[in-house]
Every structure is written in structure tokens, then in C-alpha cells.
From TrEMBL:
Gene3D superfamilies: Histidine kinase-like ATPase, C-terminal domain. Signal peptide: none annotated. The keyword DNA damage does not apply. Residues 36-140 form the Histidine kinase/HSP90-like ATPase domain. Binds to sigma F and blocks its ability to form an RNA polymerase holoenzyme (E-sigma F). Phosphorylates SpoIIAA on a serine residue. This phosphorylation may enable SpoIIAA to act as an anti-anti-sigma factor that counteracts SpoIIAB and thus releases sigma F from inhibition. GO terms for molecular function: protein serine/threonine kinase activity. Keywords: ATP-binding, Kinase, Nucleotide-binding, Serine/threonine-protein kinase, Sporulation, Transferase. Belongs to the anti-sigma-factor family. This is Anti-sigma F factor. It comes from Clostridium algifaecis. The keyword Kinase applies. The gene is spoIIAB. Its EC number is 2.7.11.1. HAMAP family: Anti_sigma_F.
Length: 142
């Protein structure tokens, strides 16, 4: 089914966002990405994990899970939490919308994810959590 896969989970602490970026970047490195492609993936992961921590768990402790899959030159990332969920996904995906204006959030997380990845899908249920699935196809340098 997949050429390779990995799973990690960690406590929803903001300092673990860096760990998530590095772990996914190390996994994606086997696809021989360009520096720009790797930066795109790291930025998208950072946004998804930060959303789980700040919005999903509202800075309370929970678990963030990342599943990564490689098939050919395609990387699939699934980042999920069991936090408060998103009541209106279409509204949440609008640029500049934030459910936490008190924290001076930019409201660009989903926009950034969608810009840097080839596909973005959000599934969420109120009080059950959110799952963000992102895909990126890496261009071969050879």
C-alpha cells in the first residue's frame, strides 16, 4: 500500500511544535526534496500542530498525533487532535478568520497549509477533535 510510514504523538505543548517539524522533515528527506519543498512541508506542519495546540486544546493538555505516509513521490500527512473541534470549517478556512482574537492570531493557518501543500482536507466534529490531511508531491531532481 505505502512505501513507508511513521507515526508520532506528543503532548500539546507549544515547544513540541518544533519537534513535529523536524520529525516530519527528517521523514520527508528520503524523497530528496528541494530546500523550498522541505520548507513548505515544515511550515504546513507547524501551522497544523499550532492549530491543534492553541485552538483544538485551547492551550490545555492533550495529545497531538501525526501519521505520515510515502507512496512514490507523494507525502501524506494526517495531523489530529481530540480537542474542541471546529464548529464551522468553511468559516475557519477563510483568510484572516480566527477563533482566538484575544491571542492576536493572524487567522492564516489553513490558508498557509493550502498554499504550501498540494491538497488540504479538514474533518472536524464539535467536542471530538479535528483531523487535517495534507498531501505534497515532490518533484524529482533526477
Amino acid at each position: 500500500m505505502y512505501d513507508n510510514s511513521m507515526k508520532i504523538e506528543f503532548i500539546s505543548k507549544s515547544e513540541n511544535e518544533r519537534f513535529a517539524r523536524v520529525a516530519v522533515a527528517a521523514f520527508a528527506a528520503q524523497l530528496d526534496p528541494t530546500i523550498d519543498e522541505l520548507a513548505d512541508v515544515k511550515t504546513a506542519v507547524s501551522e497544523a500542530v499550532t492549530n491543534s495546540i492553541i485552538h483544538g486544546y485551547e492551550n490545555n493538555e492533550g495529545i497531538v498525533k501525526i501519521n505520515a505516509y510515502i507512496k512514490g513521490k507523494e507525502l501524506t500527512l494526517v495531523i489530529e487532535d481530540t480537542g474542541v473541534g471546529i464548529e464551522d470549517i468553511k468559516l475557519a478556512m477563510q483568510p484572516l478568520y480566527t477563533s482566538r482574537p484575544d491571542l492576536e492570531r493572524s487567522g492564516m493557518g489553513f490558508t498557509v497549509m493550502g498554499t504550501f501543500m498540494d491538497s488540504l482536507e479538514i474533518q472536524s466534529e464539535k467536542n471530538k477533535g479535528t483531523r487535517v490531511t495534507m498531501k505534497k508531491v515532490f518533484k524529482s531532481l533526477s
